[in-house]
Design a protein that fits this description.
9% helix, nine-stranded mixed sheet, mainly beta, 46% strand
Length: 682
């Protein structure tokens, strides 16, 4: 029996070291039913291809025996037509279709016959292991097996390794860097080959202390360590306490300016502020805001003021964030501005300001009073727009929009996940070659944002990307071939979150586009079973030809002008019209979402350009041809009083402005043109 036990130990040691599961499992030393110290290994039978289930019986292949049992060799006895396994001089033989294992003249019954499959011989696992002295317990619910075996003589004489660790201090602050001091050892001089860390109350075990560290909580943490030696024996758990105190948010203690008051348009210098925080922790971000106190409900501007332009008192507020991610409470001071004017706001914005800066306009001049400019040329051409925004809130899986285009195409989508069944959803855009010959499709530019609950930010980011430089992709589609243009894939799209995006495409031949909300496992072949979701009656859906508008405006120096975009304005600016391909009904794109405006501007003198939204809260972007796109505004605009600086045009130097109404914001907007001779008038 001792020989069998020793043999079984060798067998299962080799078994354990080669199974993939053992990278995650521990070899445990436990007491068996006879109160003897034995070794127990848990394995996952579904992870090894040399272990298979035939007719509800687990088998091991001869490859498994040869490759995983130390010292085992296999031979074929052509006389008896048996497979012979030699393990340290003891022969175990078996042959196909027999239901026994022979060793030293003794027959060991097997629960099922020996099989030959895939040019390999397979023997029932349980019978083979029991024949060589092993004990096996099978758990059908999770397909695991526990194998217990006596220890070898080397293992019985081996003392367990001893875990020992500590910390340089009794307590640390959240976010503070520190290291563990470890002094684990093995009394027999064996190498420490593995470690396992855990925190009391956390069922997970960690290979290193660095993996454990992010899971420490404020308070007293009971941390435990055990180590394994090169023989494969784990020692006992050793535990220590580690106290973590809460990280304190920074506190701004002082903020001052270099003067008590300033003229309008005079530079404001803020002295270095002082603050309290952990000594080792850096300040990584500042958040400045300012607000004019002379008008009720005046807008809070998200910026550090450099110059101010209205007589009265401003409240300037600073918040700081430390490297742990905690923000200070707001610290505010008052800045007084006199009635003396050193520089007008328009002069500053158009000469020193940044594109995207908000024009505060505390003089309250009305942009609607500017004279409407009539473009000297207006051309409607360009891409065919496929707009998918209805239903904007998607209640269930289904096809949102589908149509075919040829030539230039543009896809716009803006949808919220409004499903309530709890299953994971994906958003997909599929292109399909409906021709009888291969075609090429060029993706000239694209932007996909979200999921997020901040729809204004999504719309701004998509617009800024599309008006900027694109990265071209080319596809070749075989006849009938389908391919994803976009797939949210594994990205989590939770109920209540919105996704938004746009693509500019070119296809020389007809290309079918399908836009849909699908399930986690939906493939192309499942699309035919999806229903077409109905229009929600509020938002826009449809196909709109000629979704590019080219306006040429010539600005003289006599007065300021305005150009209305996104709202009917005379015979020039009208909503783009098309059809709903799913219903056949006419469609009107109110606001002209997805329409790209190319505004070519010439001037008689330096002229400043402003964007003034006339709807509700606005967060958009603009771009200049051969230039760059930028957020307009850098914060957000609310109401018709404020505007955003979008640049200047010099005389006789034509520039082309690019504008699109961002998803989530409202039309219309005014593009305003103010000659330099009038910058001090407002």
């Amino acid at each position: 029996m001792k020989a069998k036990n020793l043999l079984m130990s060798i067998v299962v040691c080799a078994f354990a070291l080669t199974m993939p599961t053992f990278g995650e499992q521990h070899i445990e030393y436990v007491q068996n039913s006879y109160n003897e110290l034995v070794k127990e290994i848990s394995i996952n039978l579904s992870t090894d291809k040399t272990v298979r289930n035939f007719n509800n019986t687990y088998y091991i292949s001869t490859d498994f025996i040869k490759n995983n049992i130390s010292g085992a060799s296999l031979t074929w006895n052509s006389t008896s037509k048996t497979t012979e396994v030699n393990i340290e001089g003891k022969i175990y033989s078996f042959k196909a279709d027999d239901q026994e294992l022979i060793s030293s003249g003794i027959s060991y019954p097997l629960s099922a016959p020996v099989l030959v499959k895939d040019n390999k011989t397979w023997v029932p696992m349980k019978g083979f292991m029991e024949a060589i002295g092993g004990g096996i317990q099978y758990n059908a619910s999770n397909k695991t097996m526990k194998i217990q075996m006596p220890l070898t003589e080397i293992e019985r004489l081996n003392n367990p390794p001893v875990a020992d660790f500590g910390f340089e201090a009794e307590s640390y602050i959240e976010g503070e860097d520190f290291n563990v001091v470890e002094k684990s050892m093995d009394p027999d001089g064996h190498l420490i080959t593995d470690k396992s860390w855990k925190i009391q109350g956390d069922s997970k075990e960690y290979k290193t202390f660095e993996e454990l560290k992010p899971n420490l909580k404020v308070g007293t943490n009971i941390i435990s360590l055990r180590v394994k030696d090169s023989i494969g024996r784990w020692g006992e758990w050793t535990s220590n306490e580690l106290k973590i105190t809460a990280n304190q948010a920074p506190i701004v203690t002082e903020l001052k300016t270099d003067k008590e008051s300033y003229s309008q348009g005079e530079p404001i210098l803020f002295k270095d502020y002082t603050y309290e925080n952990e000594e080792w922790e850096e300040i990584v971000e500042e958040k400045w805001t300012y607000q004019y106190m002379g008008q009720e409900d005046s807008q809070i501007h998200e910026d550090k003021p450099y110059k101010l332009f209205s007589e009265g008192t401003y409240k300037v507020t600073l918040e700081i964030k430390d490297s742990f991610g905690k923000w200070s409470k707001p610290y505010s001071i008052e800045v007084k501005v006199t009635d003396k004017v050193m520089q007008s706001e328009l002069m500053y914005r158009f000469t020193e300001g940044r594109m995207g800066d908000i024009l505060e306009n505390y003089n309250n001049f009305n942009f609607q009073n500017f004279e409407a400019i009539i473009p000297t040329r207006a051309t409607y051409t360009g891409a065919t727009l496929l707009m998918s925004n209805s239903p904007e809130s998607i209640p269930t899986k289904g096809i949102l929009y589908e149509d075919t285009f040829e030539g230039e195409g543009r896809i716009l989508y803006h949808h919220k996940n409004a499903s309530t069944d709890g299953s994971k959803k994906r958003f997909v855009i599929i292109m399909e070659n409906i021709n009888e010959f291969p075609i090429k499709v060029i993706n000239m530019n694209e932007s996909h944002k979200g999921p997020s609950t901040d729809v204004l930010y999504l719309g701004q980011q998509v617009t800024q990307d599309i008006l900027g430089q694109g990265r071209e992709k080319q596809y070749t589609l075989e006849p009938g071939e389908k391919r994803y243009l976009y797939d949210t894939g594994n990205r989590s799209w939770y109920t209540g979150q919105t996704i938004s995006g746009m693509l500019d495409l070119y296809s020389q031949s007809p290309l079918k586009i399908t836009i849909a909300m699908v399930g986690d496992k939906t493939e192309f072949q499942h699309m035919e079973g999806l229903t077409y979701l109905p229009h929600d009656g509020v938002h826009t859906r449809g196909t709109f030809p000629n979704a590019d508008r080219y306006y040429t405006v010539d600005i003289d120096k006599s007065k300021p002008y305005k150009l209305m975009l996104g709202l009917p304005s005379g015979d020039i600016e009208q909503p783009i019209t098309g059809y709903d391909a799913l219903t056949g009904k006419d469609a009107v794109n109110k606001g002209n979402y997805g329409v790209k405006y190319h505004i070519q501007i010439t001037t008689e003198e330096n002229t400043g350009i402003l964007l003034n939204p006339r709807g509700n809260i606005f967060k958009g972007a603009v771009g200049w041809v051969n230039g760059r796109s930028f957020a307009a505004p850098s914060g957000h605009l609310n109401g018709g009083k404020n505007a955003v600086t979008i640049g200047t045009v010099q005389p006789d130097k034509k520039k082309e402005l690019l504008y699109m109404l961002p998803n989530g914001s409202s039309a219309p907007v005014l593009i305003c043109f103010i000659p330099e001779s009038m910058w001090n008038n407002y």
